[in-house]
Amino acid sequence: MAKTKDADKISEMRQRRQRAVECSSELYGKAIEDTKFVTVPGCQWDSALKNRRGDRPCYEFPKLNSHVRQVVNEMRQTRPQGKVRGAEESDRGLAEIMQGICRNIESVSNAEQAYDIAFESAVQGGLGVWRICTDYANDDDFELDIRIDPIRNFASVRFDPAAMQIDRRDGLFAFVDDLVPESEAKRMYGDADWEGFDDDQGCEDWRDAGQVRISEYWYKQPVKRDLWALSDGRVVFADELAEESGLTEAEAEEFLAATGTTILRRRVVDSHKVMSVITNGHEFLTEPAEFPSKYIPLVPVWGNIQNIEGQDYWQGMVRPSKDQQRLHNVHRTAMTEAVAKAPKAPFIVKMKWIKGLENFWKKANSEDFPYLPVRDDAEEMPKRAQQAEVPAALIQLAGMDNDDMKAATGQHDASLGARSNETSGKAINARKQQGATATFNYMDNLTYSIRYTYEILVDMIPRVYDTQRVVRVLGEDGGEKWKTLYQEVPGPDGQMHTVNDIQKGKYDVVITVGPSYATQRMEAVDSFSAMLGQMGNGLPPPIAALMAYTVVKNTDLPGADEVDSAFRKLLVAQGVMQPKEGEQPPEPQQPDPRMQAESRKAEADAAYSEARAQEAAAKAQVVIPQAQADIQKTVAEAVAQQLQNMAQSGQLAAMLQPPPQFSPAPSQPPPGGFFMPGEGPQF
């Protein structure tokens, strides 16, 4: 029964691979031709035209390769970088640990090399691939590590043609082929049925000129999983809970009931396991192994990809410009031939002039003879025919071919570093930006692939790093920290709690594109140095010292680390920078003796002034009433003396006499209309 099941699986595997090859063989063939076109000398001529030229030269003037290099190297200067974010506020700390682990995986794996190889392949042919795998850290270790490895031959990878998503995450299978010498294959898998392999007619395409095709077969195995919502708030898969407890699912359910935890809701989830197995087309050479992720760990990078009538058509930068490059080669070769023939124009002679001297004249254009003899009876000297001229049309066509390539790639002279019509820096940068925009789709597709890589890593890390272990966490600046995963620490309630449990976090992944950290460091050195030079003494001393420290910290020079350490200690001691964990905090500043003396003198002067003020206030309380009494006495004495003087002079008596009496005036004047003398008022 087992053999029948294996035979069914082998048959299914063969059908899947055949379907994958048939659906993509044409595009893979074109991609291989495109890659050879810009990398292998002699592949830039049309084969029919090359055969028709025979022994005539077929020169190549590879302009297209510089366009490819421009896009690839621009990416290397502004590498996309993944970032892990916590889906909730409580997940921020775990997300930082996850981010640091992902960076460490990239660093240890030299993932930049895998990204570069795949991206260059995508720009040239339209497709590049890298893979994510696991391996033991050391030969004497049982802890698995995660790695990102390059796949240098993109044509060895075949994806499920029914997959519709760009990253092929919805594909049900994939193949990674490798052609191995037959003797090496038999040595590696000596227990295999190689006689049956040789007789198997279905394995014809698995053999090629003494080589055997060994393929990694990745596939998704459907499984059904029970999802439980527990009364304590947890939502768990029954199989995971049972595996953690070392029980069966039924026993785990009974255990929950015994502990008072009930299952509030349950449902069956259609899921899958990712499996891999090695095959030679005739049988499985290894046992199927489960991969610790829900994704098939093969990450494609596309150049230009477009779905046309349900089928994906993809290509790189080379394919649309191949005809322009071929025409440029033809026209430049014709120009070269014309110029080469110019000094070797044929001679016009009569045969009787050179009779018996033919060997000299046959080698006239190939040998450097000091003279060419003629017969003595020759009537005149031989003459060269009119020299061949380079047609102006060929020169114009070669220039047009060059412009056509620039138009097809979107990169003009300014983008390629050549002199162009733009003269100002602003105009040159604008044209460079135009070229970068025309090719940004390649960079954008790379960011999609790196984001998918981080999603796979975030899914794998909790499964691979599932026990307590110390891991290195890298920061953006390359600084490293060490964290203990699943560490047990006592809590405030006296109970043991698990910290750094990355399995409990939920994460999102984003990608940023910009200059690498090393480039940012150099820009920081230039910017802060310029600011220090311009502002100079206008900066407060602590700010100037901090900016100078930033320049030293970001400078890669011999001895910079020692200067950095000493500078930092000085700034921390001065209180300009906060001490880090493990650094000595700044000591309390000792008071200046002179300032202490001045302070004590100021305090004494203030106390003396206050005492004088209090003494003056006390005296005032005694002096003021006495002064008031003296003033009153003086005033009374002055008044009495004045009265005495007035009495002696008689002025006082006159002032004491009664005032004179007045007679009432008549109400009417006397006859005559006026008063008579002696009749008026008497005083």
UniProtKB/TrEMBL annotation:
InterPro entries named among the record's database cross-references: P22_portal
Coiled coil segments of this chain: none
Biased composition (Low complexity): 673-683
Pfam families tied to this protein: P22_portal (PF16510)
Segments of this protein annotated with the region Disordered: 576-606, 656-683
Ranges of Basic and acidic residues composition bias in the record: 595-604
Biased composition (Pro residues): 657-672
Protein name: Portal protein
